[in-house]
Every structure is written in structure tokens, then in C-alpha cells.
């Protein structure tokens, strides 16, 4: 459905994207994670025809983005990071304009608009001015607009940025519903828990290159099952263990305060995008075995662990 072949983008002396290749089959929800400047938005801009690649190409539903430009553009809907709705028009007027741009008939526009507004739970706001909508409603309207022409592919560039947690989860539910209908989804996000919850596979991008790519579960399992966060000087060190028992035994006689929690995708992301000593080339699609040993990788910053708990222990330094 989406095939990227050595896609590259250079700006003067900056290599924004370095020969990225990947394949995303029909119906997959694929998450593309990376820090600011990693190349996420550059990738989407090239895939959607907004930026011309320096070299390489990509295929959207078999259409070459460089040779079959118009046909490729008909295959996708795009939800950009910035809210780009016409604020002075109504909800229905925004959707009608989009439909006409895609040469939909008036009858098709009306029928599709009714269906899609019901789908995103905005039927009661058909005649409301966009500027009167909440942030979450505007995001849902942008998704509805992108789906108006029934595209095979949906590009979501930071779709929940700036939303509070409750509204963000409502958008997650909508995204999952869209994917379950058979739409292929390419998602970029800064919210790592968003990718962990939604995606079939995740790619970690750093400095224009894919560092690793796998399912969220496999990426997490490479680090371990349980983690201990402890303060070491001015930094937060994280140790990883294959089991909870090993983690608890490690600090049974310790003298430091620590937090015991489950490993999450943020741990894998930090470890594999520059915070870990092993080179990226050492990571494969299969998670390594842990053989009961712990990994003492240092992580700086907070960890939003699932099922975390504070534990006070005393640890002797050997």
C-alpha cells in the first residue's frame, strides 16, 4: 500500500532524510517516531507531494509519487499538524469545498458529509462556525475532511498535539476505528504512548535515518519486562530486568530510593535513538533473550511507566 524506496531529502548541507526504505501493507497502522528535526514531517511532505525528494521515490497504492503525481494524490487524505480549517466557514462548508476539490458530485458530497459527520460524532454541528468549536472537535473535523473522498491511505501528522488527555483518547478511539475499516494509516507523533497504544509497527527515526522498526511489544521486550528508576547524582538512571523478582532482588538490600515499574515504549525509544551505547546496526527484528541479567542503561528525563509504583529500598554499592 505504501512503499518507500531510498527516499532522500537534502537542504544545502543538511541531510534531512537519508535513503529511507520501508513497506506498509494495506490496513496497517504504522507509527513513525522521532525527536524534533528527525525527518518525520519531511517524510510526510514528500509522500504527499508538498516537497520534492532529492532522490529515491515512493509508491502510494502502486502510484509513483514522482511519475504519477495526480493519481498518487488521489490515494490519500492528510491531517496536518497545524489546524488549517477555514475558521469563518461552517463545518459543512469546509467539507463541501474539500469534496469539490476532489471533483465529487453534489449528491456524493451530501451523502458522504452526512455519513462522515456521524462517524466522527459531529452531526449536531453541521452549521456551526469552525471558530466556535473546541480543539478536539476541530481535530475530528480535520480527520473527517481528510476522509471525505474515501482515500485508501490516511496520513496523520501529530493529530493530537495540544489536546488534553481525555480528548486525546477520544481521537485515539476514532483513529483505531478508521484503521479497523481497512484504511492504511501513517502516523507521526511525539506522544510515545500514542504509538504504543495504536500502532501495529513502529519505526524510530533519528537524524534522518530509521534506527529500528518492529512491533511495540518486541521493541519493549528488547529492554526487559521491568525497570528500576533511581537517582544517581543529577541524573535518573534506569536498570532493566527480565522479571519483577529480579528487579526486587537487585534492590533488596539497597540504600537508595527508587521506582519499580513495567518497561514501556519510551524506554525503547530513549535507548535506541542515541542514549544507548550499542550501535543501531546491532538491533534486529527479533528481541534478544535476557537470561536473568539486568541492563544498566542510563536514561535522562521522566518515564511515563505503566503500572509503576514507588519502592523504598537500601542498596549497597559494590
What would your notes on this structure say?
By secondary structure, the chain is an alpha/beta fold. The chain has 2 domains: 2-217, P-loop containing nucleotide triphosphate hydrolases (Rossmann fold, 3-Layer(aba) Sandwich); 224-312, no CATH class. It is 31% helix and 27% strand. The protein contains 10 helices and 14 strands. It has helices at residues 40-47, 69-73, 91-101, 106-119, 135-147, 165-180, 192-198, 216-223, 244-250, 265-275; strands at 2-11, 14-24, 29-33, 55-60, 63-64, 76-79, 153-157, 184-189, 201-206, 209-214, 226-232, 235-241, 257-262, 309-312. The strands form 3 sheets. It has a 6-stranded mixed beta sheet, sandwiched between helices. It has a 4-stranded antiparallel beta sheet with strand order 2-1-4-5. A 4-stranded antiparallel beta sheet has the order 12-11-13-14. A hairpin with a 2-residue loop joins strand 11 and strand 12 (235-241). Helix 3 (91-101) packs across helix 4 (106-119), helix 3 (91-101) packs parallel to helix 5 and helix 4 packs across helix 5 (135-147). The radius of gyration is 22 Å and the shape is globular. It starts with a strand and ends in a 6-residue tail after the last strand.
Amino acid at each position: 500500500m505504501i512503499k518507500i524506496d531510498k527516499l532522500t531529502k537534502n537542504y544545502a548541507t543538511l541531510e534531512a532524510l537519508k535513503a529511507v526504505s520501508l513497506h506498509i501493507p494495506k490496513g496497517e497502522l504504522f507509527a513513525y517516531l522521532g525527536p524534533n528535526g528527525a525527518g518525520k514531517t519531511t517524510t510526510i511532505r514528500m509522500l504527499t507531494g508538498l516537497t520534492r525528494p532529492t532522490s529515491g521515490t515512493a509508491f502510494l497504492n502502486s502510484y509513483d509519487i514522482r511519475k504519477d503525481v495526480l493519481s498518487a494524490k488521489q490515494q490519500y487524505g492528510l491531517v496536518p499538524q497545524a489546524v488549517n480549517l477555514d475558521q469563518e466557514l461552517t463545518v459543512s462548508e469546509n467539507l463541501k469545498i474539500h469534496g469539490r476539490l476532489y471533483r465529487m458530485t453534489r449528491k456524493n458530497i451530501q451523502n458522504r458529509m452526512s455519513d462522515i459527520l456521524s462517524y466522527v460524532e459531529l452531526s449536531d454541528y453541521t452549521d456551526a462556525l469552525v471558530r466556535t468549536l473546541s480543539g478536539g472537535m476541530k481535530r475530528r473535523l480535520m480527520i473527517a475532511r481528510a476522509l471525505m473522498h474515501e482515500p485508501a491511505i490516511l496520513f496523520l501528522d501529530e493529530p493530537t498535539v495540544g489536546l488534553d488527555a481525555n480528548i486525546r483518547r477520544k481521537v485515539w478511539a476514532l483513529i483505531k476505528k478508521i484503521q479497523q475499516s481497512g484504511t492504511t494509516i501513517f502516523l507521526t507523533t511525539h506522544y510515545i504512548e500514542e504509538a504504543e497504544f495504536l500502532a501495529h509497527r513502529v519505526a524510530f527515526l533519528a537524524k534522518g535515518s530509521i534506527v529500528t522498526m518492529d512491533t511495540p511489544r518486541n521493541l519493549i521486550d528488547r529492554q526487559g519486562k521491568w525497570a528500576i528508576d533511581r537517582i544517581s547524582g543529577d541524573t535518573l538512571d534506569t536498570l532493566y530486568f527480565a522479571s519483577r523478582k529480579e528487579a526486587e532482588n537487585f534492590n533488596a538490600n539497597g540504600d537508595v530510593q527508587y521506582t519499580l515499574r513495567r518497561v514501556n515504549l519510551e524506554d525503547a525509544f530513549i535507548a535506541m535513538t542515541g542514549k544507548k551505547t550499542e550501535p543501531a546496526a546491532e538491533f534486529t527484528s527479533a528481541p534478544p533473550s535476557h537470561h536473568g541479567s539486568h541492563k544498566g542503561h542510563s536514561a535522562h528525563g521522566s518515564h511515563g511507566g505503566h503500572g509503576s509504583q514507588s519502592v523504598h529500598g537500601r542498596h549497597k554499592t559494590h
